[in-house]
Design a protein that fits this description.
Blueprint: H1 15-22, H2 26-36, H3 44-47, H4 58-62, H5 68-76, H6 80-93, H7 99-103, H8 105-121, H9 128-138, H10 144-157, H11 163-177, H12 194-198, E1 202-208, E2 215-224, E3 227-238, E4 260-262, E5 264-269, E6 280-282, E7 287-289, E8 301-303, E9 314-315, E10 325-328, E11 343-346, E12 356-358, H13 360-369, E13 377-382
Parallel strand pairs: 1-13, 5-6, 11-12
Antiparallel strand pairs: 1-2, 2-3, 4-13, 5-10, 7-8, 7-9, 10-11
Helix pairs in contact: 2-6, 5-8, 6-9, 8-9, 8-10, 10-11
Length: about 375
Amino acid sequence: MTMTNDDSDDPFGLARFTAAQDRGGTYQRAVAELRAGAKVSHWMWFVFPQIAGLGMSPVSREFAVSGLGEARAYLAHPVLGPRLRECAAIVAGTEGRSAERIFGPVDAVKLRSSMTLFAAAADEAGGLVFRAVLAKYFGGVPDEATVTRLLRSVVMRMAQLTRALLVGAMITVLAVLVPAGTPRAAAAAGHAPVRQLAAVRQLITVTASSRSTTFATFRAYRVTGTKRVLVYGPWTARVGYNGIAAPGGKREGDGRTPAGTYGFSFFFGVDPNPGVAFPYRHAYTYDYWDDDSASPRYNEWVDADAVSTGRDPEPMHNVPAYDYAAVIAYNTARTPGRGSAIFLHAGTGGATAGCVSLPVSELLKVLRWLTPTQHPVIAIGVS
């Protein structure tokens, strides 16, 4: 980070951002381009700032954000904070375009990094718009390089503690990076973060009688303290054609549904939004889910008109299975080979390829009931 002055009222030198945005009406031009759905001029580094260490050019270094402290100061700034949220809201509200179409492939990566940083820095309410961008354009998965740098800073500060305490600190930071109410897994195994589990107010259980069966019992509960109140079910759900995997045993293409407890990233469907509280993404014919373990976009929603989808991608415009669906936040670390495209979707009369399915009338009841602020999770296992 380059400091522009020593003023104690501006310890992070945030004036460098306001100066760049105000120069020649740059910020107004950026807003106009975002509203038009196409970035054409150069302002990315200081309108959507990123964590230090991701860029090597003089401009990227000048406008790099040193860490969570500076990011929080940025959000609290009377000009920069509202401007960042305005721009993020415009992006979140844009329809029919991928991030690559709006920003180009390079700046789409920068957008993801910026939204990851500020989602981590903001409180739960203040970070909603940043998490909405991540959900809509990146499958709810934060930028790995940004997460790594934030974790590294914590590791350095905790270097004198025992290994057990260090691991605990990492888990805590991951829970902050994926705040409660943003249903994404915190560890490589993809399970719901500790903080989210503690705040769960909506619980779905999918329980099979054995690992090999393709049928399971589906129940939805409202949770208050230690009490569970049944809201829906018991219903019959379908799982993978090879049953449910052992914990940690899910592999790409094995036809098994992963065991474990997970959040939800976002909802989607071929049909219009049925009135859900989660971010809802329309599935077009050019939308796919990258199932290729060797692809850099493994386990992500991708726009085939903008980027490579990898080998044998999953079409998202899939009737009737994906008329309505919820993305289960499994393998959000995108570990190659651990499995991808795990959804709660409309039933087709048979077993799934690794998802959980319900008859559409029951599915819609659940999707309309699930609410991000209630921190819902789905627990999949064998009785």
